[in-house]
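Sync notes, pocket subgroup
Present: LS, DG
LS reminded everyone that the earlier model was apo-only. Rerun requested with adenosine-5'-diphosphate included. Inputs:
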Amino acid sequence: MNFVILETVQTTMKQEQEKEQSSLLHEKLKEYFGFSSFKGNQEAVIRNVLAGRDTFVLMPTGGGKSLCYQLPALLMEGVAIVISPLIALMKNQVDSMRTFSAESGIAHFLNSSLNKTAVQQVRSDVLAGKTKLLYFAPESLTKEDNVAFLRKIKISFYAIDEAHCISEWGHDFRPEYRRIRPIINEIGPAPLIALTATATPKVQMDIQKNLGMTDASVFKSSFNRPNLYYEIRPKHNVDHDIIRFIKQNEGKSGIIYCLSRKKVEELTELLLANGIKARAYHAGMDASTRAANQDDFLMERVDVIVATIAFGMGIDKPDVRYVIHYDMPKSLEGYYQETGRAGRDGGEGYCLAFYSYKDIQKLEKFMQGKPIAEQEIGKLLLLETVSYAESSMCRRKTLLHYFGEEYTEENCGNCDNCRNPKPKVDAKAELKMALEALRDIGDKFKSDYLINVLLGKNTALIKSYGHNKSKWFSAGADHDARFWGAVVRQALILGLVDKNIENYGLISINRKGENYIAMPFPVTVTLDHDYDAEEKEIEAVAPMGKGGAADEELFAMLKDLRKKVAKKHGLPPFVIFQDPSLEDMSVQYPITLEEMQNITGVGVGKARKFGEEFVKLIKAYVEEKEIIRPQDMIVKSVGNKSGNKIFIIQSIDRKMDFEDIARAKDLDFDELLTEIEGIVNSGTKLDISYYIREFMDEDKADDIYLYFKEDAESDSLDVAIKELGPDYTEEEIRLVRIKFICEQGN
Ligand code: ADP
Ligand code: MG
Ligand code: ZN
């Protein structure tokens, strides 16, 4: 009995403590980073780190991994050691950390780019207890004098970012990462937090084993990125399509991935010749040009970076609005990582890939001469890519399935296949025919040969083998080459046919293929849309961000200002304020530093550092345009009603159609008028004459107006309806009455 009570008391105490900790964490989140809630697993991860346990975080790109170590680092005693793969990116992260705090020594990096004095400065800040985060590339961490220095200080924990670099199965293996564990042992133990966006189980195991953290608490988030729009387009007019796409998305940042360095250079030139601000990036360029080009992109001096996959890991630019794959990548893992660089801030992210089976064949050729085991892996990965590109299934579903996650939604609404389903064709009989033909002609031919036999093409090669006399010759002539190509690829995808890459892509039927002939099951193939770039307008994807009723004009002005401020400080614009913050400012119109702190993504530090100029601009804008700010409204009702009011006022300021306003707030016209009357009656002036002018007969409007001005004894609606008679609808009378009250009364 007593025991039970004690247990209850303990549980309640624990709950109380947790609640307390949670509100403290939220407070600090707002204070330092300006966010009012945690994203996904962040809070659970952070608690685990604070509790001193090893932590393994699997979260997609843009999921908010950095915060998982940044916030605990600020709260815990000692210095957090952050290991991150690239020197070039460290500076960005440190700059970004410094904007959150008044103490610029709060974050530092130690790497080979620093001179002696700079290193001394860092060390003295660390020893003075000013520094909470110290960034290292693995190769600097292993330097003896660094190890000796770190042994002297209190380490709160080690964070290993981009931890998949440990694994050969990851897409970015770095041998130095394998030395992290032994070095940590040398420096001294502290809890570990490893973070990656790579989700395959093989990589996960590798990481945990190698870091000696198999007992870690694992936090795996969904890898779904709902704001990313996936589209695969046949590669017919690729240059033309890309230029068009960029022009339709002018002023937005985008990345274009090409497989070869040569293509990167060519395409960059082509874009420049077409008046697009672009830069190239690949590993063959000299380091300083490469760094300068990356900088131009981050600082938004150019819109587009054309790159090989050498570009991107750890690039934290949150407002990349599109990622284009000029060529299909070698694996879905790579595709997912690269597309993942779009829309990190949760806003629009258009992922467009151009697919041609010829490209896949080229990739297969590159694998020739590599060790067989590697070829086998490469082949499987490519097959997944082909199957993804050719599938008519939801892209999101296929991708998530690849990462071991089941996506159950029927229609994701944000991929090409869901928005615009492709025609599917039944191909059971044809698949059987192709397999039988392949069995008979044997294993010495490529798929083109098989297709030509089925089509009945009298090529020299076919004649030399005598297959023009085979019973399969011309057996498939009532379909075209494109159709048969799709059938053969389907056979490969289903594993009914093997392809020998070492031997130039010869195909042969296997046991599963034999089984299919004996017992065929229904199969469909997808044909490309008949795609004609001239005719088909590229649909503009509506921004997926919170968006809403942001003031576009102000937003654009704020973006310009951000560029200027960024230039002055030598920082990338997104380090100053991110897009969602600017968007929020153009809804809330903050005109004091205090109000600025209520903006999403703006904490105390940022408001103090950069707020001034923004507040000034907004204030001038609000005054010039006589904008009624949400804060200034005398809001009588509570809850989302007041949200409606603000929205309505802003929408009327922007001369929006009443029907659109009503629809946006899910009101009927009548309810909208009631809301507007409420606003007007509480003393706010609205100018609705634009709407009356457009939708009402001018004479009628004048009559009603005159009635209220000269005849009426009160503004009673009922009396007005009676007096004016059946020629005027109630709606008309209400509209004009609103105008009258504003002009005469308010
Ligand atoms: P990752 O390293 O997982 O790719 P980042 O740490 O770079 O992601 O964060 C991605 C974006 O999410 C950044 O723009 C960051 O400011 C934003 N973010 C992180 N945590 C939150 C949060 N709790 N609320 C809103 N935005 C957040
Ligand atoms: Mg990251
Ligand atoms: Zn879909």
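DG: The first helix runs from residue 2 to 33.
LS: Residues 697 and 732 are 10 Å apart (CA to CA).
Action: DG to write up.
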